[in-house]
């Protein structure tokens, strides 16, 4: 019997939540791992304040700005490299070297160079 994908996903989330709660109040009680219930209570109380939504909108704005800048830069570089054969041959080794590296692997290096906050 095959479960509907929505039902399977819901059951997976419920199982993960139950496991989280059991571990947080059992073997990990008193450690840095909060329980799911206390996490949800804090989320609800924080979401009722203006500071939460201001910070959320600021974070989304910075993320969209970064996405827009990187997309524009990538398209511009792609067009320039593709338009000039000399630029293509000059960058071929670097592009082929970086192609198999997942972007998430580069993230710690970017944070070290530019800092973890937009003001750095």
Number of strands: 0
If helices are DSSP runs of H or I spanning 4 or more residues, what is the number of helices? 5
Supply the helix-strand structural class: mainly alpha
SSE succession: HHHHH
How far apart are the first and last residues' alpha carbons, in Å? Answer: 54 Å
Strand content: under 5%
Rough shape?
elongated
Bin the helical content: over 70%
Q: Major sheet, described briefly? A: none
Structural Rg: 22 Å
Oligomer: single chain
What low-confidence regions span 5 or more consecutive residues with pLDDT below 50? none
Mean pLDDT: 91
Structure in words:
The chain has five helices and no strands. It is an all-alpha fold. It has a domain at 83-120. Helix 3 crosses helix 4. The longest helix has 34 residues, at 50-83.
List the helices and strands and how they pair.
Layout: H1 5-25, H2 36-47, H3 50-83, H4 85-98, H5 103-114
Helix pairs in contact: 3-4
């Amino acid at each position: 019997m095959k479960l509907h994908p929505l039902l399977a996903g819901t059951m997976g989330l419920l199982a993960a939540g139950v496991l989280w709660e059991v571990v947080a109040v059992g073997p990990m009680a008193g450690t840095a791992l909060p329980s799911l219930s206390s996490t949800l209570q804090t989320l609800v109380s924080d979401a009722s304040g203006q500071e939460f939504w201001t910070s959320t909108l600021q974070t989304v704005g910075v993320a969209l700005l970064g996405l827009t800048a990187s997309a524009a830069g990538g398209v511009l570089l792609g067009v320039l490299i593709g338009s000039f054969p000399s630029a293509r041959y000059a960058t071929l080794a670097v592009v082929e070297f970086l192609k198999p590296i997942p972007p998430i692997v580069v993230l710690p290096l970017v944070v070290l160079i530019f800092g973890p906050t937009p003001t750095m």
